[in-house]
Amino acid sequence: MRGAWPSGRLSVMRVTVLGASGRTGIHVVRLLRGRGHQVRAGLRSRRRAEQVAGLGAETVVADVTADADDLVEALAGSEVVISAIGAPDPDQASVDLVDRDGVMTAIRAAEKAGVSRFVQLSAQFADSPDQGDRLVRSILMAKQISDSVLRRSSLNWTIVRPGTLTDDQPTGHVKIAGHLEPGRVSRADVAAVLVATLEEPLAENQGFDVIGGEIPIPSALASLG
Ligand SMILES: NC(=O)c1ccc[n+]([C@@H]2O[C@H](COP(=O)([O-])OP(=O)(O)OC[C@H]3O[C@@H](n4cnc5c(N)ncnc54)[C@H](OP(=O)(O)O)[C@@H]3O)[C@@H](O)[C@H]2O)c1
C-alpha cells in the first residue's frame, strides 16, 4: 500500500480504530468519517457502543487483552489500524497489560489479518522514558516496548508521540518534529494528526513528537522526511 495515497488526493480507506470509545479515539472516528473513510470502531466492550453511536461507524468488540484470534477477526478486511488505546488505570500491571502486551497483540493481529498500515498513539518520551516525567514512567516504558515491536513489524507504521493531552478545542495547528521540548496538545488536534498521517507519505515508517503550535497540520507533517 506504500505510496497508495499521494498528498492532496484522498483515497477512501477501510480503517479500524482501536480505543474508539476513548477521549482521543472518538475524535479519530469522527474525523475519519468526515474524510469519507469506512470506519470500524473497535471497542473494549459493547457497553461503550453508545460513545460512537450516530457517527456512521461499524462497531466491533476489540479487547486487546482478550483472545488474539478474535482480534485478528475484528481487524480482518481493514487496510489501516489506528490505535488510540490507553490503560484504564495508571498502575504498572494495567499499563503492562494494555499499553505493552495488548498493543503488541494488536500489532501481531494486524499482521495476521493482512492490515497494511498501523498508526500508533504513543506519548512524548516513550522513546527515552528516563527523560520523561517520573509519574508516567511506567506508561512510557510500556509504550517504548510496544513502539519498538511496531517499528520491527512487517507493517507500514507511524508512531505519534504527543505531549500532555488536553480537552481544549481543536486549533488545526501543531508543532511536529522527531523530538521536541515538553509541551501540551489537545486530543482533538492529536486525532487530526493521526488521521492526516494517512494522507502524507512522509509520515510512513516515522515516529515523531507533537505538541501545540502554529503550523497547519498538513504542513507540519509535510516537513517530516
Ligand atoms: N494523558 C496524557 O496526557 C497523555 C499524553 C500522551 C499520550 N497519552 C496516550 O494517549 C492515548 C489516548 O489517551 P486518552 O486520554 O484519549 O485515553 P482514554 O480516554 O483513557 O481512552 C482509552 C481508550 O482505550 C480503550 N481501552 C482500554 N483498555 C482496552 C483494551 N484492553 N482493549 C481495547 N481498548 C481498550 C478504552 O476503552 P473503554 O472506553 O472501554 O475504557 C478507551 O477507548 C493513551 O495511550 C495515553 O497513554 C496520554
Automatic annotation (TrEMBL):
From what superkingdom does this record's organism come? Bacteria
Concerning InterPro entries, the annotation shows: NAD(P)-bd_dom, NAD(P)-bd_dom_sf
Using the record's annotation, list all stretches that form the NAD(P)-binding domain: 19-201
Q: Which Gene3D superfamilies match?
A: NAD(P)-binding Rossmann-like Domain
The name under which this protein is listed is NAD(P)-binding domain-containing protein
